[in-house]
Recover the amino acids of this structure.
């Protein structure tokens, strides 16, 4: 594989490359078929994929407990234990809400204490096992609303300390720890700072387009943010991207062949596919599972696993907090709220 790191780190070269190849690249992108559907779950947890180019990664969201909490519940501890001892992924990708902030009564000392608790329960145990943790902002750890700017300052403070910077192969870290991209093998990953329902900034749209054009050198592309584009769970139906942004994001990701887009915040698992885009809404790993729209009971806490071997995603499945594999076929065929319909992954 030929990486494009030089394009990211040399802005003039990157700009000239876009100008020279943009029309051809755009035509090739538009002619390409959308990525294939994600596979259904296996019956049991499979062994790590084998082979020189094999990759396994875990996606973990909404780990926090009550406001200000510096400890994590048993489901989180169980997840970390299983990740370290059984799954042994190459890294863990977050979808936000690592601590329990977004509260005006929390002092700087409270927030720093929560990050210390996160290190004790999650970050340090993974690092000791040689498993990097790639953070993504959530509304409870780095809300983009002006009232919580102080929490964003402390988020940056925490994640830019030398001992906290994850050992990843960064492609673009100019805006780390908020927006950034990294590579693992032949796969590209994009962390997005989407923590509010406000309109997405044009600078972010331009940044995403640039990163995804350069990511054409990679066979696989993934993105993660906290706020989802479509309604997933009861009680959070309105806590999604604005419809215009959701459609623009879907079109952008399909055009550039993003294999899966991971989100949190709704505390419910749903593996969907919306007009060529594979979407995975993650249930919380910590407190407060919510029922899916149209379903009465919440699911067990869980986290998501992706295996890549050769030229395809071989496994993409959720593990419940009791260690069992979630059966994707038990998900409703569609989630529907007002005029938004989100089909299941196999529809």
């Amino acid at each position: 594989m030929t990486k494009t790191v030089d394009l990211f780190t040399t802005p003039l070269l990157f700009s000239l490359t876009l100008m020279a190849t943009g029309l051809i690249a755009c035509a090739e992108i538009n002619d390409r078929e959308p990525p294939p559907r994600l596979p259904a779950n296996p019956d049991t947890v499979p062994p790590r994929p084998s082979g020189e180019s094999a990759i396994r990664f875990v996606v973990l969201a909404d780990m926090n407990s009550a406001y200000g909490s510096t400890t994590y519940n048993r489901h989180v501890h169980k997840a970390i234990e299983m990740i370290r001892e059984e799954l042994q992924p190459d890294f863990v990708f977050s979808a936000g809400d690592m601590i329990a902030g977004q509260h005006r009564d929390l002092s700087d000392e409270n927030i720093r204490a929560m990050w210390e608790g996160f290190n004790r329960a999650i970050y340090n145990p993974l690092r000791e096992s040689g498993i990097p943790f790639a953070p993504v902002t959530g509304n409870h750890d780095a809300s983009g609303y002006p009232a919580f700017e102080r929490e964003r300052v402390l988020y940056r403070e925490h994640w830019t300390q030398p001992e906290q910077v994850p050992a990843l192969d960064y492609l673009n870290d100019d805006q780390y720890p908020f927006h950034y991209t990294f590579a693992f093998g032949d796969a590209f990953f994009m962390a997005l700072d989407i923590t509010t329902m406000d309109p997405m900034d044009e600078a972010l749209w331009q940044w995403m387009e640039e990163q995804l054009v350069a990511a054409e050198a990679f066979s696989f592309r993934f993105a993660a943010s906290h706020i989802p584009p479509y309604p997933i769970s009861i009680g959070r139906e309105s806590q999604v991207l604005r419809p215009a942004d959701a459609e623009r994001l879907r079109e952008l990701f399909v055009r550039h062949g993003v294999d899966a887009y991971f989100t949190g915040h709704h505390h419910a698992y749903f593996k969907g596919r919306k007009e060529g885009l594979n979407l995975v809404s993650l249930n919380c790993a910590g407190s407060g599972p919510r029922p899916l729209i149209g379903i009465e009971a919440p699911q067990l806490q869980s986290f998501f696993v992706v295996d890549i071997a050769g030229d395809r995603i071989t496994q993409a499945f959720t593990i419940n907090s009791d260690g069992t594999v979630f059966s994707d076929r038990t998900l409703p065929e569609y989630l529907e709220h007002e005029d938004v319909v989100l089909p299941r992954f196999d529809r």
